[in-house]
Amino acid sequence: MRTLAHHTQAELAERATRAPLLHIDGVTKTFPGVKALDDVSLDVRAGEVHALLGENGAGKSTLMKVLAGNHQADRGRIHLEGEPIRVSGPHEAKHLGIVLIHQELSLAPEMTVAENIFLGSLPRRALGFVDFRKLYADAGRILDRLGCRFAASDKVETLSIANRQMVEIGRALVFTPKIVVFDEPTASLTDAEKVVLFDVIRSLQAENVGIVYISHRMDEIFTLSARITVLRDGAVRGTLVTAETTEDEVTRLMIGRALEPRSRAQARPAGKMALEVKGLSCGDLFRDVSFGVRAGEVVGMYGLIGAGRTEIAETIFGLRAPDAGEIRRDGEVVSINSPPDAIAHGIALAPESRKEQGLVLSMSCRDNMSLSQLETVSRAGWLDRSAEQAIYDRYAERLALKSPSWRTPVVNLSGGNQQKVVLGKWLGTAPKVLIIDEPTRGIDVGSKSEIHKLIRELAAGGMAVLMISSEMPEVLGVSDRILALYHGRLAAEFDADTVTEDALVQAISGL
Ligand SMILES: Nc1ncnc2c1ncn2[C@@H]1O[C@H](COP(=O)(O)OP(=O)(O)OP(=O)(O)O)[C@@H](O)[C@H]1O
Ligand SMILES: [Mg+2]
């Protein structure tokens, strides 16, 4: 695989002066109640990684969906290799060499990897029969190129999220692509999988493909991109050369202010043990896990993806049955066999996967937020709309939810704003114990610090919070204590005031 490192400085300098491969000019797109894109222009050169950055709801995904034919612009032009193009649908975009790897994966889970990769363009023999030999051979070559270890004949539903992502990328390679767009590709990847993805990106780059890279992670953007375009409220606020700018400058353009310095969690007198887990085990997922969370405390649970963190949370919340162990609430052993049991004991779980567990996409923002608290908002069997509205108003404001109105169906929100609705929904239940799984995945940097503040405030108000996260700064910045998990076991426990990054990394790597 040829990587960027193999290019000489002269080659890179030459690239920077090339005419754009892709030129988006004055694109405007309106949805009912929202001007999602306002006269947006952007160009991408061959072999360039161009980062697209902006707050949740700024218009990043919409712009790329216009490019890839998923949406039609109201106004504006697109040129590819100097020629004007009209992209009327995703299939046509692919034939032109424009591929979008979506923020929400769009595979058919019950079909094989090969069928998914070649969906819509299956190789045919005479009489129109699918040529399965060719299909699997071609798909196998694409998987090899991506360094994938699974087979082209595997069903997609058996793959991990990361491997599904690889299948999506595989789709991009069927037609020799000219432009590949990655929309938040690393949200659910482990560090090892990110390395593979970055290699793929660099090899596309070496083949002179133009790449648009959307992410909320500054470290990735500064590692990969040559230029950064910042969108805010649907308009371009600036295009910067990555080597000549800083995270601060980019953040200011993005959210219109600098971020407050991260404040360390303050030590406070902890209350009584609100949640205690003793010897909890569940098959191969985790074994003999014991810990406690006091009222008024945020306990961070840190570990690699796959270490068993989410499974522990699901067990406490009654979604999984443990083989052994007990759960105590305020010192009393409780029996939790289902989520309603957990909720009755004052435990809430804000899950990590918003699509599958958190939201009813067709319902309004307000109704989604009040779903988990039907008791609070129903009086004598009637829904109390004003109570529902109060909950919505409160959390929409605190979380800076960007939605045209409370009526807007959640499906029409941007990815990060959907995550905010999930948070609002569980925060609004005012539980005694809140378990929150990857609270800021897909959330922009400005809202992220707001959410961190909100979590601290909830704890200050007496809530016991167990926060699962794979982001070191988040765990260090928000928690009072940190539990490190390694392969389904509690490897170590740290006081957040004295722990070092090295110690944490060692603990979660089993060293
Ligand atoms: N299909 C749709 N119907 C109505 N409104 C939409 C639709 N898709 C997006 N929007 C609105 O357009 C705006 C831009 O959304 P977009 O998804 O492009 O944001 P984004 O920058 O990708 O944000 P995120 O970082 O959260 O993914 C938002 O206000 C969103 O609610
Ligand atoms: Mg998006």
Account of the 3D structure:
The chain folds into 2 domains: 4-255, P-loop containing nucleotide triphosphate hydrolases (Rossmann fold, 3-Layer(aba) Sandwich), CATH 3.40.50.300; 273-508, P-loop containing nucleotide triphosphate hydrolases (Rossmann fold). It has 511 residues and is an alpha/beta fold. Helices cover 34% and strands 25% of the residues. α15 (385-398) packs across α16. Bound molecules: adenosine-5'-triphosphate and magnesium ion. Residues 60-61, 103, 183, 414-415 line the site of magnesium ion (MG).
β-strand number: 22
Overall radius of gyration: 24 Å
Q: Estimate percent helicity.
A: 25-40%
Q: Mind summarizing the main beta sheet?
A: 6 strands, mixed
Determine the mean pLDDT.
Answer: 87
List the ligand species: adenosine-5'-triphosphate, magnesium ion
Spatial order of the strands forming the largest sheet: 6-7-8-3-9-10
Q: Into which percentage range does the β-strand content fall?
A: 25-35%
Question: Which stretches of 5+ consecutive residues score pLDDT under 50?
Answer: 1-5
